[in-house]
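Dear colleagues,

I hope this message finds you well. In preparation for our joint manuscript, I am sending the Putative peptidoglycan-binding domain-containing protein (Phormidesmis priestleyi Ana) sequence together with its predicted structure, so that both groups work from identical material. I would be grateful if you could confirm receipt.
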Amino acid sequence: MKQTAVRILRRSIGGCSIGILALTGLPALASSTAPLTSSTLTSSAQVGASPLRPRQPILSQSERLISPSAQLIAVALSRRELRFGDTGADVRALQRYLSRNGLYPFMIDGTYNQETANSVATYQRIRNLPATGIASEETLKDMDFDFLPVAASPTVAPAPNRGTTSNPAIRTGALSIGSVGSDVTALQERLNSYGIAVVADGVYGFETQEGVRTYQRVQGLTATGVADPDTLESMGFTATNRYPYVAAVIADESQLETVRQFFENAYIDRNRRGRFINIGSFDSRFPAEARVKAAEARGFDSRVLYR
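The corresponding structure tokens are as follows:
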């Protein structure tokens, strides 16, 4: 039927046959010369064609990968102890926690391997827990994991003997990039004792800064990479107050990065009156006042504090 209609139109129209061929490709129009209307086109599209499917919503990549009921973060573990050889979602949740805190720079594969055990042991040393490398119930609770309810209550483990921690003295109020000397060596040795490997060369470089930052994350301290008084105290150090004159900018954490543009080793410090930004500690008043004037010249509210 289509071919007959095409031959007739070629004889009557002539050179316009190409345009007519495009129209005669529509089955409903092959035998009709009626003018095209919207209803005609609608009916023609329905003849010989599959029914129109409803449009599917365009999903983002995250929507395609994650169902509405998917659980992104494990909030409760099914086991109260994890150890070498264990596998599954509980191990994967543990590895994610260690990775977020800078202790597990490896693939999160849900297998409790030697790297996982070493990372757990490092965490335990930092938190003053028995460094067994086994994620015991006490260790998992210390990480703030919850547990799914079980039919029978587990046996409560006895409280560990945490021993005593020595309190070596640090002669400076804080240590940061550029610090050198025996205080830095003591800090580096303490990091190594936790399992955070750094070279104990007495120079506070990038490696030491990252080690301190890892320790601070695990301990819930502000992860600045500066061994400030809170961090040193948490590690068991005490200050001898050899540098009692402090050049201080009276501001809080929101101004710290701005202050560091001019005083790169600045850090958050505190005294009995509150918190401030320490831009230098000195053994006499004169250099402290000079540092304060330099800060005031840059528009900061600064003064000398005495410890």
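For the figure legend, we might mention the following. The chain has twelve helices and eight strands. Residues 206-219 form the longest helix (14 residues).

With kind regards,
E.M.
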